[in-house]
Design goal:
It is built from twelve helices and no strands. The chain has 270 residues and is mostly helical. The protein has one domain.
Length: 270
């Protein structure tokens, strides 16, 4: 198991470090521009219908009254670039095994180790979880450093930011479970990446449309982003227990299905 985990670390460390640095840089920069956005939040332009609708679509919540500082802080956690960095990591990581190994023709070497397929799957999953936590902690650290330039009354509270991070980790796990399931069913890594990417992009689009288009709202529950609402957490400070349980349920269910599929499927590199 230790050898398998070291193998996963060696194969993914460069990508993980690069994306971790990118996430920290982006979140730090986005947070540093918050003071200007907060100053403009009371401007009449930001309170008109169109601006409210666009910000509401990005945050994934309905804005009934004025746009507050807490809502704008939520933009850092749901910015498309931030989501893209996280999803790039999880999709790239999870499609390595077994789809990537089969595609390269090296699956026989991997399964030739004196370990079971389940152990291969567990070791890789453990490194994925540790890598995701590392990335999110780096992003949180950059966010907190960037927030030092914000007035104390508008600065995000550490406790609420940690709740957002936990919710984000649950989102990471849910997408990872889906990616592992797709990978376990695929013989080509490119196909696995395309399918998983299509799923998360459809989820993002559905969540965006649900805030702008009435017919899409009944379907919003199908999007994983419907259960990730940083602005709501930052505003209320409450633990999103239901949302996290749903995301963990999706992640664990698909992860288990992926593991069972990988353990039982017939793998052929010819």
């Amino acid at each position: 198991m230790t050898g398998l985990m070291l193998k996963s670390i060696r194969e993914t460390r460069v990508l993980t470090l690069l994306l971790t640095a990118a996430l920290a840089l982006v979140m730090g920069l986005l947070t540093s521009v918050l003071p200007r956005l907060i100053e403009q939040a009371s401007d009449a332009l930001l309170q008109i219908g169109f601006a409210k609708a666009m910000i509401s679509a990005l945050l994934g919540i309905q804005i009934e009254d004025v746009i507050t500082a807490e809502m704008l802080q939520g933009l850092v956690w749901v910015h498309p670039i931030v989501l893209a960095i996280i999803w790039t990591h999880v999709i790239t990581f999870c499609t390595r095994t077994p789809a990537g190994e089969i595609d390269r023709g090296t699956i026989d070497l991997l399964l030739g180790w004196p370990v079971s397929r389940r152990q291969v799957y567990l070791a890789d999953s453990g490194v994925l979880l540790a890598s995701g936590l590392l990335m999110l902690l780096a992003g949180l650290g950059a966010h907190l450093l960037g927030s030092l330039g914000i007035d104390a009354e508008n600065r995000p509270a550490l406790g609420r930011s940690l709740l957002v991070l936990l919710n984000f980790l649950c989102l990471y796990i849910s997408v990872g479970g889906v990616a592992y399931l797709v990978s376990s069913l695929s013989d080509r890594r490119g196909r696995a990446v395309a399918i998983t990417l299509g799923v998360v992009m459809a989820s993002f689009l559905l969540n965006f449309l649900a805030q702008l288009w009435e017919p899409a709202r009944p379907l919003a529950f199908l999007s994983v982003l419907d259960y990730y609402r940083p602005a709501r957490i930052l505003r209320s400070g409450s633990i999103p227990t239901t949302d996290m349980l749903v995301l963990l349920g999706v992640g664990v269910t698909t992860w288990l299905a992926g593991g069972i599929t990988m353990a039982r499927r017939s793998i052929c590199t010819v």
